[in-house]
C-alpha cells in the first residue's frame, strides 16, 4: 500500500505538470490535447521524481543517486527532444547504456576507501576470501547449494549477478548469523527449512520482494519479516538484502 506522503507528492506533481502544459498551450509553444499532453507530462514526471530521489539521498531520507540521476537525465533528454533541441525519444533509452559505466566507476570510488571486512564468494563455496578495505565488488553468480556447506557471516557485494542459497543442504551453527547482500542488478533466491528461524530486512529500488508468501513490488519497495520464535531461537539467520534492480525471494522448503 502506498504511503499518504507519496500519494500527496504524486498528486501535487501531476497538478504542477498539468499547469505547465496549459501555460505552454496558452503561449503557443504546443497545442493541448490528451495525447499531446501526455507526451509532455511523463518526461516531466521523470524529471521531478529524479530530483526528488536525489534530494532524498542528500537529506538521508532514502532516495538513490543512481535512479534519481538516471530519471532526471532521461526525462530531460526526452523534453529536449519534444522541443526539437536534440533528436531523442523514449525508444532511445538504450543509447544511455554508457551511464552504467559511469555508475560502476562511482561505485568503485565510493567503496575504495572502505574499512569494513567483506566476504566475497568467487563461485566456489570453498574459496571464500576476506578483505579489509579496498573494493570487493564483483560480477557473476553466487551459489551456495553444496551438501553440508557451512554457513558463516557474510557481506556479499555484486555489481551484477544472481545469488542462490539452499539452507536445507547447509550446516548452520547454533548462533545468530548475519548475511548481507548488496547488488546493483540481479536476483536473490533463498531456500530455508521450516525449522530454521530467520529475519529479513529487504529493499529494492525497482523490482519485487517475496518473503514467506508476503510480497511487494514496484519502485522503492521494502519488506521486513521475522519468524515468531526468532528472538529466543539459538540458531537463526539475519538477512539484510539490498538491490538497485531485481527481485528478492525467500521461500520455505
From TrEMBL:
Chain ranges of the LiaF transmembrane domain? 11-115
Q: Which domain of life is it from?
A: Bacteria
Q: Where are the transmembrane segments?
A: 7-25, 37-55, 62-81, 93-109
The protein's UniProt keywords, in alphabetical order, are: Membrane, Transmembrane, Transmembrane helix
Ranges for domain Cell wall-active antibiotics response LiaF-like C-terminal? 139-250
Pfam families assigned: LiaF-like_C, LiaF-TM
List the protein's name: Cell wall-active antibiotics response protein LiaF
Native organism: Virgibacillus byunsanensis
